[in-house]
Recover the amino acids of this structure.
């Protein structure tokens, strides 16, 4: 990927510091991160333009990421977008299983290991 072809990723998380930190880190990998603070905000963004991948926090101010993932996977326009669920609170195997059963492609615990996240993003976008 070159700077002219930055990969567009949508990060849905209400923590502005986390969004900014992750956007800065991913820009070094030629990944352009756009932020959304809620499920509704994410749906508005995706109505305008489709990202290559969605990083989705489980806990959102207007619902939860599991429901948003379910909704995306039922929508013919959005179902092909890879989803990586992120969670600081829901980190048990049952939580991970629920996220993956809703259609998420990966489920990572916070704090995020940036190398592991980059490997997931790269794998999911290249496949």
């Amino acid at each position: 990927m070159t700077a002219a072809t930055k990969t567009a990723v949508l990060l849905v998380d209400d923590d502005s510091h986390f969004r900014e930190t992750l956007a800065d880190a991913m820009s070094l990998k030629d990944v352009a991160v756009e932020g959304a603070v809620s499920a509704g905000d994410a749906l508005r963004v995706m109505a305008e333009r489709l990202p290559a991948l969605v990083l989705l926090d489980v806990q959102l101010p207007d619902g939860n990421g599991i429901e948003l993932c379910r909704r995306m996977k039922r929508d013919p326009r959005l179902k092909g977008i890879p989803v990586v669920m992120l969670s600081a609170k829901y980190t048990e195997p049952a939580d991970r299983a629920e996220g993956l059963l809703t259609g998420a492609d990966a489920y990572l615990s916070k704090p995020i290991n940036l190398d592991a996240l980059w490997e997931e993003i790269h794998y999911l976008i290249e496949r």
Notes: The chain has a mean pLDDT of 90. The chain has one domain: 3-126. The helical segments are 16-27, 39-48, 65-74, 93-101, 114-126. The radius of gyration is 13 Å.
